[in-house]
Specification:
- By secondary structure, the protein is mainly β.
- The protein has one domain (9-65).
- 0% of the residues lie in helices and 64% in strands.
- It has strands at residues 9-15, 18-25, 28-37, 43-51, 57-65.
- It has a 5-stranded antiparallel beta sheet, with no helix packed on it.
- A hairpin with a 5-residue loop joins β4 and β5 (57-65).
- The chain is elongated.
- The N and C termini lie far apart (31 Å).
- The relative contact order is 0.20.
């Protein structure tokens, strides 16, 4: 993975309409990532938890609706 100061690798696992991931920097886990699509396919929720490159705690939730 290039272009991010927060992490340099991502491991993803898909389970139906959900993708879960672990983001690492220099081999150390720094963030978890979840992307879930609703059963009707109209809403996607992305959640990221962990720490950024500055060592600050992050917990971001983004919700996307299909138009």
């Amino acid at each position: 993975m290039t272009g991010s100061q927060d992490f340099d690798s991502v491991a993803l696992k898909r389970n139906g309409t959900t993708v879960e991931g672990v983001r690492k920097k220099a081999g150390k886990q720094v963030q978890t990532y979840t992307r879930a699509v609703s059963k009707d396919g109209k809403t996607m929720t992305v959640t990221v938890k962990g720490t950024n490159a500055k060592g600050q705690t992050i917990h971001n939730v983004s919700v996307y609706e299909k138009q």
